[in-house]
């Protein structure tokens, strides 16, 4: 082919993207302009460049006109750079003889003035055509994928992902922060819309995780450090001391019975504080693994050093070890699935709903525990004052769709409120009032569920609750008034109730920012992790080899969480079974003959990829360690470091193109 | 101060500043894409060059841009602590602080050179930064460095000729 004999023959194409680009940018003008630029042999515009006919057009032209460089002005390179590179490759061109111009996301979609937009497009096209001339044929670097997988978070998302991968024969490390896996789902009573019991569908999966030969389960552990890159991550996991020797404990719970505290008296996290626990405890009867844990914050031994240590004495297997220290494990994995979950909105932040002030105001998660047969009241709805409610208000959208708290819709609250309405009615036969803004029940069987429950006699009042306060006419001051505007009849309603349930929304976890930094992934401004593409890569992140599952990416119900977890596992499997991944060849290299040996680049590299040889007095870059940031390239005083795909000359040519700077102007100076 | 509506609706008939922007692949370039996806309109004066990291921005790129006719240069990187390559943005910041002095010593107004941290989720911040910079540079007027370079070259030529004792006609 002629592209070896030094003749530059460029094909330029601009995409209409329907009317997305062509509606703003004058594509014909750009095409005409590009045709006159040096080296351009073909200049065309087409309705959809990314479609098959569009790609075939490029390939046909490559053959017909002997093109050896391709420039496409279309959407963002994040979307279709690969598509066009591949098209060029199929036609026999090196895929890096290609340059893309971002004409949609960063031009047509963000500008109103057609002339200015066209001018911008022309500038950038000129710059790309300048640049592509200098492109070099490059080869992608192949790196092997370690077959083991790390799953972070042992909620339903992490459990499902881990089981899927383990069933496919891959070795999985499942790391969970809490003493037991199960996550939020383990706290729920029943699940919408089928009303099957959460424990019945979750606990078998939990024990499957525990017993799976391919899963290494580390609870009460946290990921402490992540290094490396796709296929070759080195992960350090911190195992917090639970003061129990895992291998010896059989979960007989004798130590809990023997604790010097005769009565449980500390806040029970699993039961949302509705019950008390001892310093030595097990989260809930089906906790997996069946291991007790000693909480040093409340245990007398750790606080004062003076304790009879009855727990140690009672254990026949000598499983209690009060001198246990935290341990670190280092593992090599090829892919990571982040399934760190969510945090329920703190209802105290909406002070006028009185949560924390009025004892009969509950959060939805507390009510889940209250109606749960294995909960603190064994499933009886008994309020903090010992009475059973006869009238209950359920307040939707607490911490959702609210300018003062969170803007987003938490997606599950309408449905779980409807579920709670049904369950509370079933348990207490109380009158139930749902206060809602909109009822949002999309999904299979969801709206039918809503219809069914509303026909059961649960009342729905359309209006955001403005205030909750004690009924002044009630001497016991127990009864509460829920005040809202019923927007359907345009009247202020005041409903006296015995119990208020606040349907709290879903928030990112407090440590989302730390987790994001550790895994080198990105967060939205709210704090949910960002997927690579909202539609086409919903479980991928911008960091290759790291995938998202569950609510850490945004609020989801259980079916969607499980679906995403399966998707994340499939993405990881696809990588592992392929065995290798091709990386962008944007690494840096040193031209030895020009290196003066000043060493200024050596300390700059965050990956220690640059080494200096005292023998030849030159620096060199280890390509396997280089991640291609280009920091060293910018620092080299003699310009002897080059970065593939971002060579200085290529960037200067882009600047020239943008500014329409001609060499002859320089000659004048 | 120009109002934003004018800025976004600006017509090509009047003089428009050209701002060369170097955006890092992971944060600011993605944020500019997000602005697009969210249809957040902003001034059409920037021309983005994508680099992998703000640490890749060689100070010479900036000087070169000014020398070749840019009216402003904008660098966008990840927030401190968020660099995809751990610390490239700090390297960029160090260079930037030194370079700013050099650029100012050329008589280039400080508003023409800007470094901004814009994360991948801050599409609206792209609008704020670009609009603000475009309006400031617009108020400053054209920099026209290439033209100035020609003038300076002529001045030098005349001075050299005079030094050599020749009579020169002033243009």
Question: Features of this protein?
Answer:
heterodimer; A: 669 residues; alpha/beta; Rossmann fold; FAD/NAD(P)-binding domain; 4 domains; 5-stranded parallel β-sheet; globular; B: 171 residues; 4-stranded parallel β-sheet; 4 strands; 46% helix; elongated
Characterize the biggest β-sheet of chain B: 4 strands, parallel
Strand content of chain B: 5-15%
What's the total count of β strands of chain A?
34
Shape of chain B: elongated
Query: Largest beta sheet of chain A: what is the strand line-up?
Result: 10-7-6-18-29
CATH superfamily of the largest domain in chain A: FAD/NAD(P)-binding domain
Q: Using only CA atoms, what is the Rg of chain B? A: 19 Å
Backbone structural class of chain A: alpha/beta
Instruction: Report the total helices of chain B.
Output: 6
- Report low-confidence residues of chain B grouped into runs of 5 or more: none
N→C terminal distance of chain B: 37 Å
Oligomer state equals heterodimer
Helical proportion of chain B?
A: 40-55%
Class by SSE composition of chain B: alpha/beta
Give the domain tally of chain A.
4
Quick description:
Chain A has 669 residues and is of the alpha/beta class.
Walk me through what this model shows.
The complex is a heterodimer of chains A (669) and B (171). By secondary structure, chain A is α/β, with parallel strands linked by helices. Chain A has four domains: 137 residues, 3-Layer(aba) Sandwich (Rossmann fold); 178 residues, 3-Layer(bba) Sandwich (FAD/NAD(P)-binding domain); 165 residues, FAD/NAD(P)-binding domain; 56 residues, Alpha-Beta Plaits. In chain A, 28% of the residues lie in helices and 23% in strands. Chain A is built from 18 helices and 34 strands. In chain A, strand 3, helix 3 and strand 4 form a beta-alpha-beta unit. In chain A, helix 2 packs across helix 3, helix 6 packs across helix 7 and helix 12 runs parallel beside helix 13. Chain A is globular and about 90 Å long. The two termini of chain A are 40 Å apart. The C terminus of chain A is likely disordered. In chain B, 46% of the residues lie in helices and 13% in strands. The longest helix of chain B has 19 residues. The mean pLDDT of chain B is 88. Chain B has one domain: Rossmann fold. Chain B is α/β, with parallel strands linked by helices and 171 residues long. Chain B has six helices and four strands, in the order H-E-H-E-H-E-H-E-H-H. Classes of the chains: A alpha/beta (669), B alpha/beta (171). Chains A and B meet through helix 4, helix 5, helix 16 and helix 17 of A and helix 2, strand 2, helix 3, helix 4 and helix 6 of B.
């Amino acid at each position: 082919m002629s592209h070896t004999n030094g003749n530059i023959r460029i094909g330029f194409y601009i995409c209409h993207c329907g009317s997305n680009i062509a509606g703003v940018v004058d594509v014909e003008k750009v095409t005409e302009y590009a045709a006159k630029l040096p080296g351009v042999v073909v200049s065309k515009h087409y309705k959809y460049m990314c479609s098959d006919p569009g790609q075939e057009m490029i390939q046909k032209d490559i053959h017909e006109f002997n093109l050896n460089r391709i420039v496409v002005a279309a959407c963002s390179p994040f979307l279709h750079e690969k598509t066009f590179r591949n098209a060029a490759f199929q036609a026999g061109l090196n895929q890096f003889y290609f340059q893309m111009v971002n004409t949609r996301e960063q031009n047509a979609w963000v500008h109103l003035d057609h002339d200015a937009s066209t001018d911008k497009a022309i500038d950038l096209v000129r710059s790309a055509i300048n640049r592509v001339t200098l492109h070099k044929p490059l080869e992608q670097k192949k790196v092997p994928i370690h077959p083991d997988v790390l799953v972070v978070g042992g909620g339903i998302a992490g459990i499902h992902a881990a089981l899927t991968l383990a069933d496919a024969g891959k070795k999985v490390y499942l790391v969970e922060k809490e003493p037991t896996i199960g996550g939020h789902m383990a706290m729920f009573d029943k699940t919408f819309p089928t009303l099957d019991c959460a424990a019945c569908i979750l606990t078998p999966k939990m024990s499957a995780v525990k017993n799976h030969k391919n899963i290494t389960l580390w609870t009460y552990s946290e990921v402490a450090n992540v290094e490396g890159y796709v296929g070759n991550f080195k992960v350090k996991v911190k195992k917090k001391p639970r003061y129990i020797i895992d291998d010896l404990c059989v979960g007989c719970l004798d130590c809990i019975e023997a604790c010097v505290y005769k009565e449980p008296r500390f806040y029970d996290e699993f039961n949302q504080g509705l019950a008390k626990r001892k310093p030595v405890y097990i989260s809930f009867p089906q906790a997996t693994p069946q291991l007790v844990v000693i909480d040093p914050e409340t245990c007398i031994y750790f606080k004062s050093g003076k304790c009879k240590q009855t727990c140690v004495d009672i254990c026949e297997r000598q499983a209690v070890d009060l001198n246990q220290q935290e341990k670190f494990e280092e593992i090599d994995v090829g892919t990571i699935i982040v399934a760190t979950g969510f945090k329920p909105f703190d209802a105290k932040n909406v002070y006028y709903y009185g949560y924390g002030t009025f004892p009969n105001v509950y959060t939805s998660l507390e009510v889940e525990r209250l109606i749960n047969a294995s909960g603190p009241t064994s499933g009886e709805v008994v309020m903090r004052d010992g009475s059973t409610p006869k009238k209950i208000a359920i307040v939707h959208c607490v911490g959702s769709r609210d300018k003062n708290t969170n803007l987003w819709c938490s997606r599950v609250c309408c449905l779980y409120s409807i579920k709670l309405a049904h369950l509370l009615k079933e348990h207490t036969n109380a009158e139930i009032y749902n206060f809602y803004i909109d009822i949002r029940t999309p999904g299979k069987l969801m709206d039918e569920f809503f219809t069914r429950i509303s026909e059961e006699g649960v009342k729905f009042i359309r209006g955001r609750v403005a205030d909750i306060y004690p009924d002044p006419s009630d001497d016991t001051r127990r009864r509460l008034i829920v005040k809202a505007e019923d927007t359907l009849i345009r009247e202020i309603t005041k409903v006296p109730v015995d119990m208020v349930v606040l349907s709290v929304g879903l928030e990112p976890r407090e440590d989302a920012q730390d987790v994001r930094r550790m895994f080198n992934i990105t967060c939205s401004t709210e704090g949910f992790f960002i997927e690579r593409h909202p539609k086409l890569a919903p479980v991928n992140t911008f960091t290759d080899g790291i995938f998202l599952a569950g609510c850490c990416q945004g609020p989801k119900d259980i079916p969607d969480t499980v679906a995403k977890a399966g998707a994340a596992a499939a993405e990881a499997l696809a990588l592992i079974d392929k065995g290798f991944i091709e990386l962008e060849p944007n690494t840096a290299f040193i031209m030895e003959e020009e290196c003066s040996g000043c060493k200024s680049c050596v300390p700059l590299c965050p990956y220690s990829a640059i080494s200096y040889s005292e023998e030849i007095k030159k620096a060199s870059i280890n390509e396997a360690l280089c991640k291609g940031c280009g920091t060293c390239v910018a620092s080299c005083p003699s310009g002897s470091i080059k970065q593939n795909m971002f060579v200085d000359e290529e960037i200067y040519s882009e600047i020239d193109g943008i500014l329409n700077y001609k060499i002859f102007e320089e000659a004048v100076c | 101060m120009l109002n934003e509506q004018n800025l976004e609706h600006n017509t090509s008939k009047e003089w428009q500043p050209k701002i060369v922007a170097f955006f890092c692949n992971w944060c600011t370039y993605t944020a500019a894409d997000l602005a697009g996806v969210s249809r957040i309109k902003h001034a059409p004066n920037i021309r983005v060059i994508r680099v992998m990291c703000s640490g890749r921005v060689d100070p010479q790129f900036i000087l070169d841009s000014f020398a070749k006719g840019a009216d402003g240069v904008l660098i966008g990187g990840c927030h401190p602590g968020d660099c995809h390559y751990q610390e490239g943005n700090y390297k960029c910041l160090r260079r930037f602080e030194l370079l700013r002095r050099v650029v100012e010593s050329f008589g280039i107004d400080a508003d023409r050179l800007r470094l901004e941290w814009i994360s991948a989720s801050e599409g609206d911040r792209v609008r704020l930064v670009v609009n603000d910079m475009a309006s400031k540079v617009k108020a400053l007027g054209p920099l026209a460095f290439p033209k100035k370079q020609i003038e300076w070259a002529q001045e030098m030529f005349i001075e050299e000729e005079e030094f050599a004792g020749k009579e020169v006609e002033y243009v």
